[in-house]
TrEMBL record, chains A, B:
SUPFAM superfamilies: Nudix (SSF55811), Winged helix' DNA-binding domain (SSF46785)
InterPro entries for this protein: NUDIX_hydrolase-like_dom_sf (IPR015797), WH-like_DNA-bd_sf (IPR036388), WH_DNA-bd_sf (IPR036390), WHD_NrtR (IPR054105)
Domain NrtR DNA-binding winged helix, residue spans: 167-223
Parts forming coiled coils: none
Protein name: ADP-ribose pyrophosphatase
Signal peptide: none
Length: 241, 241
């Protein structure tokens, strides 16, 4: 059978842009060590092992690439167009494939959000490097399109779900929450409008505490209500994931 | 390679419940003609052909099962747990599989919404029958869980997207829109609250027409704004679907 099945992961973290810029999205890529696209960057992943579940394969790639556990992990999409082959201009998995070059590749892609400090995001594994999502190198296969789709999903989802939770500490100010939304959306948001809309959803609630510090009027701290976070994402059937 | 790849589809239509009951969700199932689960009902689908794209495979199953084009078609999920095999109690595709019974099966499942009149929904193909989603027979493999997940996705999505559009004519009354939401959610909604919320989203707008009929005060007709429908679902990359 000439169909190969691979699992790849788009792993996203929020960190300051280079030169202490504003918060922005970063993701780790793996440099390919064999043809095709030898020397190019690609998403972490590889062929699905017979004894490995889909989500476990994504977790394994995340762990070996970053040493991190995901704050959020969800299946993104199964890409399986007829033009996806390891030999052609599309398809395939990142670091290590091992499939015949003429095979058509169906890739099941996960996306993960992680909380990565700058030092944690340093090179954890050989051939791994983090890039700002807005300044990616040329990528192998169709991985640029796959990343664009993951970013579109994140930008859509932050509008109707409490997914920003994955990027925040347990308690946060509304300014910090807004900074996460601005970094994901790539544009500034009006503070007063954002505050009103964020509180209207009912997803966050004041903790009763204020930010510790030296300011005259320290801002209030908020947290996500447990029930709003627990219901996202809709879990797939346990036995079938 | 002991991994088999299949594509299955959960196809949903809205029609009156049996005995002229309220609108409810129906879906077509295929009676299996071979072991395992010979004689049981299963989702339409089968093994992915080497020359067939994923979405095309879903469209082919939809067409051969119902003779209909989908008003909405989206990838639901790739199910690939280790316990999914054609021999075991889970996994696999519906009508015709053709895989060795010891193989592990990864199923990429699509969900489709169709507008099926009662006569169109009559048996279109041999071994196909429509069932109310609330009164399904025992299903082969893990297909009951797969259907539950599709229903959960639809119920979540109708809360934040214009997906009800797929079940409605071009112009509709707010009572018809509410009936779609009630049928999907499986519960009655307060008419005044529903009207206020539906108009607040900005997804629908009055057409300026009223329902033709003999009533003293015929209700106003609405339509979805083109831009609200055009953006759902988020399209995957064209070359990779």
């Amino acid at each position: 059978m000439a169909l190969q099945l691979a699992v790849s992961s788009v792993i996203l973290a929020l960190r300051p842009a280079p030169d202490d810029g504003p918060l922005t999205l970063w993701l780790p890529l793996v440099r390919r060590i064999r043809e095709p696209y030898e020397g190019s960057w690609a998403l972490p992943g590889g062929p699905l092992g017979e004894a490995c579940g889909l989500e476990q394969a994504a977790r394994d790639a995340l762990s070996s690439t970053t040493g991190l556990d995901p704050a959020y992990l969800e299946q993104l999409y199964a890409f399986g167009g007829l033009d996806r082959s390891l030999a052609g201009g599309a398809g395939g998995a990142g670091g290590d494939d091992g499939a015949d070059q003429a095979d058509r590749v169906v890739s099941i892609v996960y996306w993960a959000l992680v909380q990565a400090e700058e030092d944690q995001a340093a090179v954890r594994a050989h051939n791994v490097e983090w890039f700002p999502a807005s300044a990616l190198p040329d990528l192998a296969f169709d991985h640029t399109q796959v990343i664009d789709y993951a970013l579109a999903r994140l930008r859509a989802k932050i509008g109707y779900s409490p997914i920003a939770h994955a990027f925040l500490p347990a308690e946060f100010t509304l300014a910090e929450l807004r900074a996460v939304h601005e970094a994901v959306l790539g544009r500034e948001l009006d503070p007063a409008n954002f505050r009103r809309q964020a509180l209207a959803t009912g997803a966050v609630e004041p903790t009763g505490h204020r930010l510790q510090g030296t300011r005259h009027r320290p801002p209030s701290l908020y947290r996500y209500r447990a029930e709003s976070v627990a219901t996202s994402p809709t879990p797939p059937p346990r036995s079938a994931s």
